[in-house]
């Protein structure tokens, strides 16, 4: 069974002093076409929660001839480093988001293209020639690096492909050759868009969720701090949202809100890379997972549609910004089921 790397570890109660204990999210998004001058996105129905991203498209070929195209889903790039704590849903698999796609209801088996880079230079061949997995997490790459000859390790250290991670695990100091490359992954497949007919394409994956044990924009009994201005701009935190945080602080024995952050990013700007430059009929649904959770994100005309769901709809939508979602969850809450 695939093992989820988790921000759920943050569910344990934490104090304000622990608020910088965090995992970073990886932003993923939608589909891109090799040819989009005559293909328009007639509809996009986007569902976002901390458990699932579901996207249903309707594409329309505006020309009078069938159009063949490569369709691609760029995965978020991974910067391998022992100094960063990144949320990866499936950390022992090249398919680290669990990507699935269907066309007109039929499952498609996409190809996976992966390249590794160090200081901007493609080092894919170097890694593959030595039997090193390109995916840097899950232990397989590190285990393979342990068997490299010393002269290769020295060369790769000089080139920024690997670094040495030194630490004491309780049994003495360890010196481990560790991945330090950047992995670029893209799923792709070929498909035909028939003239005069709509084509439905759906894809699903598990998002990378960032977490912080505590709130990074609260200090000294008030909403403030280094991240406050950034969060206001990124998540459009309004007065009602901030008042709810202050209310949670007042209800806490130590005056600190017993809430922790989860963050989700979705790259929407690629939705403008079509013949019309807009998404004809756009619907965004955000599920915060539990009625007790607080949620904030940017959007025009957002309406609450259920105990945990919020919806935004727009015609001829031009995606100027990506979607950034902030969810605050009580420490006492169980992991939410936003599907």
Proportion of strand residues:
35-45%
Count of all domains: 2
Low-confidence stretches: 1-22, 333-339
> What value does the Rg take, in angstroms?
22 Å
How many strand units? 24
Q: Name the strands of the widest sheet in spatial order.
A: 9-8-15-5-4-20-23-22
Average pLDDT value? Answer: 81
Under the CATH scheme, which architecture of the largest domain would be assigned?
Sandwich
- Sheet with the most strands? 8 strands, mixed
Protein described:
This protein is mainly beta. It has 2 domains: 7-123 and 181-330, Immunoglobulin-like (Sandwich); 124-180, no CATH class. Helix content is 12%, strand content 40%. It contains 5 helices and 24 strands. The chain has helices spanning 124-129, 140-145, 150-159, 228-235, 239-250; strands spanning 22-23, 28-29, 32-33, 39-48, 53-61, 67-74, 78-79, 100-103, 106-108, 111-118, 121-122, 162-168, 173-179, 182-193, 198-205, 210-212, 218-219, 222-223, 259-267, 279-287, 294-297, 303-304, 309-317, 323-330. Strands 9-8-15-5-4-20-23-22 form an 8-stranded mixed beta sheet, with no helix packed on it. A hairpin with a 2-residue loop joins strand 17 (218-219) and strand 18 (222-223). The longest helix has 12 residues, at 239-250. The protein is flat and about 60 Å long.
């Amino acid at each position: 069974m695939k093992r989820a790397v988790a921000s759920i570890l943050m569910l344990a109660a934490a104090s304000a002093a622990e608020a910088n204990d965090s995992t970073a999210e990886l932003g993923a998004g939608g589909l891109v076409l090799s040819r989009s001058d005559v293909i328009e996105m007639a509809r996009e129905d986007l569902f976002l929660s901390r458990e699932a991203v579901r996207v249903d498209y309707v594409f329309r070929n505006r020309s009078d001839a069938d159009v063949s195209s490569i369709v691609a889903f760029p995965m978020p790039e991974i910067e391998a480093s022992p100094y960063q704590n990144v949320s990866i849903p499936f950390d022992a698999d090249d398919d680290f988001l669990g990507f699935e796609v269907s066309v007109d209801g039929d499952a498609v088996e996409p190809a996976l293209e992966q390249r590794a880079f160090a200081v901007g230079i493609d080092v894919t061949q170097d890694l593959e020639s030595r039997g090193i997995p390109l995916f840097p997490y899950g232990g397989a790459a590190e285990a393979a690096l342990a068997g490299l000859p010393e002269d290769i390790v020295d060369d790769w250290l000089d080139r920024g492909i690997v670094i040495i991670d030194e630490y004491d695990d309780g049994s003495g100091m360890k010196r481990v050759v560790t991945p330090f490359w950047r992995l670029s992954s893209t799923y792709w497949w070929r498909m035909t868009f028939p003239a005069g007919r709509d084509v439905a394409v759906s894809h699903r994956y598990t998002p990378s969720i960032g977490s912080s044990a505590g709130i990074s924009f609260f200090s000294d009994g008030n909403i403030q701090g280094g991240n406050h201005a950034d969060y206001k701009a990124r998540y459009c935190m309004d007065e009602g949202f901030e008042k709810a945080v202050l209310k949670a602080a007042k209800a806490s024995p130590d005056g600190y809100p017993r809430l922790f952050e989860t963050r989700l990013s979705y790259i929407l700007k690629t939705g403008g890379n079509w013949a019309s430059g807009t998404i004809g009929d756009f619907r965004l649904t955000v599920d915060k997972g539990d009625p007790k959770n607080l949620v904030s994100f940017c959007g025009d005309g957002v309406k609450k549609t259920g105990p945990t769901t919020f919806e935004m709809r727009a015609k001829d939508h031009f995606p100027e910004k990506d979607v950034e979602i902030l969810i605050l969850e009580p420490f006492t809450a169980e992991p939410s089921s936003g599907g």
